Amino acid sequence: METNQSHMIRRKAILRKIFYVYTISGIIFCLSLKQSCAQTYAEKSGWKKGEKVVIFHVDDAGMSYDSNVGAIKALDYGIATSVSIMMPCPWVPDMLKYLKKHPEIDAGLHLTFNSEWEGYRWGPLTGSVGTSGLVDQESVFWNNVQDVIAHASAEEIEAELKAQLTRARKMGLSPTHLDTHMGALWAKPDFLEKYIQTGIREHIPVLFAAGHGTLLRNQLRSGPLSGLQQLAKNPENMENVLEAIRKKGEQLWNNGLAVADDLYLLSYDWEIPAGAIHSEENLKKFKTEGYKRLIKDLKPGITVVLIHCTQSSESFRNISDSGLTRKGDLLSMMDPELKQFIEKEGIRLSSWRELQQRRDALPH
Question: Where are the transmembrane segments (predicted)?
């Protein structure tokens, strides 16, 4: 028969276990609640709680004539609100000619450290001396990010970054933002640091989504964003990775720069169903439906959606086999159905210029 003393001991042990369970559960709940209730960067920037702000951002302007035509058509229609230019590429003067006539366009730099196409190459503005870690055996940029990581130093990255910014300014472009071609500047912590410090020093926002990261979370294990895992001491734990990213975002915000909450860059890899006819109508419908699903699932905050709008003529097919997905982006960005859907969903289309103007109006 249980004595009063043994009963009390057992009761205390049970209570102790209950206390530990509730304490741990409470900590987990509080951490979860803290993140879910945290102000989005949209709220911090002056939008109302719950509002969804989107930048449809056109990459790769300046790469080719068809890239320029596609970017311009998309921007003129108005769903796409921002563009970035690859300063080492041959068709930059053509794109800047358009921008000079349209200074209202939100135009940044697509900082370039790769030249990925087999028969159409470009190299660094800092030069292609044989000792440079930025170039391959043909004295042009490496065709993949892994070789940039393996051969380039952070100092070479910084010098080239500055050279691309200098060329833009000499040609009359004051970039509204900076981003990174193929994710090269996200690929290694010391590359990322040069990117962030350049943005802070020049007071130019950089593409670095560091809010709730709902879409970002599912893109960190592979592809252009995978290098950001290195920011965390324990990259196997996704919450640690996201927290490390958020701290970098706070650094940017506290230094007076606009920050996005989330980022989506996978539409480039959407594949039209096997057997479907690759007509313009089918391409448009396929991409439009994809963007409608994406928009429907967006969380409140500022989301940047990367797109690649290209005219994709016969000439472009001699450069790249990516013409279908790029043409699909262009067609969807000019689709009245998508425009009406965006309006119906209450999406606020914005730009990096507006984001930074809102940030500049707040205390640093």
Answer: 18-35
Residue 335's identity, in one-letter code, is: D
Residue 312's alpha-carbon distances to 10, 71, 274, 326, in angstroms, are 76, 11, 21, 7
State the Cα–Cα distance between residues 260 and 354, nearest whole angstrom. Answer: 12
Q: CATH number of the domain at 42-360, out of 3.20.20.370, 3.40.50.300, 2.40.340.10, 3.40.640.10?
A: 3.20.20.370
Note the pLDDT tens digit of each residue in 19-53: 554 544 444 444 444 455 699 999 999 999 999 99
CB contact set of 84 (below 8 Å; sequence gap of 6+): 57, 58, 59, 60, 61, 107, 108, 109, 110, 175, 177, 178, 179
Q: What percent of the chain has pLDDT over 90?
A: 87
Specify whether the CB–CB gap between 60 and 308 falls below 8 A. yes
Q: Within a 10 A sphere around the Cβ of 122, how many other Cβ atoms?
A: 19
> Which has the minimum average pLDDT: 4-18, 58-72, 228-242?
4-18
Nearest-5° angle of CA 295, CA 63, CA 333?
Answer: 25
Q: Do 253 and 200 form a contact (C-beta atoms < 8 A)?
A: no
Domain ranges of the chain: 1-37, 42-360
